[in-house]
Amino acid sequence: MTAPHTSAPLDAPTPMGVSAAPAAPELPWAVLEDYRCFGCSPHNPHGIALAFTEHPEGLQTSFKLGRSYESYPGVVHGGLLGVVCDETMGNLIVVRTGLVAFTVSLRLRYLSPVGVGTAYTCVARLGSDDPGGPLTTATAEILDADGTTAVTATATYRNVPFGTARERIALSATEAGRLDQALTATAGSQTAQEMA
Amino acid sequence: MSTEPDDIVARITEIVAAELGVPAEGLAPETDLRGIEGADSVRLLRVVAKVEQVWDVELDDADVFGVSSVADLSAVVASALQVKA
């Protein structure tokens, strides 16, 4: 990710703790200069621009959502928390496999209200699936600053090679080629790390 | 994580004690969860969330909100593990 988030509304979420976090994985989507993913693009003024860093057990993102994302007064809308969990789990699968991960099911359990303007962290972990299978499961939890869990999530994703996913994604031929290369590089990098 | 019935009861007792801040020794399988000092709906939901994480299961809400004791919750977990197997 290189483009600054210059067009965000005043109420836009604030990615937190990037400087204190460990390595930030390069998302393959970063090769698309104008990708608009609501969850993780820095180019979508209506999105939440999540940024991810490595976590010892998976992938994490820190965020603070403002009143534009409110449900009851002072409470973040639960659907947005589903976006946060889904994004963190989905991108974890992508950076670990180099495969596109389509969400098949997503289930959330809300334990306590998530406050607007308050810092939280979402941590995603991979499930114990057979590598190479058609489905990958993952879990996520949203934690407050004290480490207390506010939301838990479980989800199942269908792993799709880019050649197959290409038919369902609106990309120009040039963009498709660049993204295919980036995903292949991600998969190769992960294989090299596993062999090291 | 063990799936033996007695082990499930023992582990859930530990989780209840930790989440509600009470000694595990004071809990029995038949203890009414809502009658434990300090218990409220949020804390009991935290128990459920922890149980789901420990055994990697998704418990049905209808089952979860129907349990009243450690033994009840253990039975729900055992049933979910059977479905998963």
From TrEMBL, chain A:
Record InterPro entries: HotDog_dom_sf (IPR029069), PTE-AB_protein (IPR052061), Thioestr_dom (IPR006683)
Pfam families reported for this sequence: 4HBT (PF03061)
Family annotation (Gene3D superfamilies): Hotdog Thioesterase
Thioesterase domain boundaries: 74-126
Name of the protein in question: Thioesterase superfamily enzyme
Organism annotation: Frankia canadensis
TrEMBL record, chain B:
PROSITE patterns: CARRIER
Every Carrier domain range: 6-81
Pfam families with a match to the protein in the record: PP-binding (PF00550)
Protein name, as recorded: Acyl carrier protein
UniProt source species: Frankia canadensis
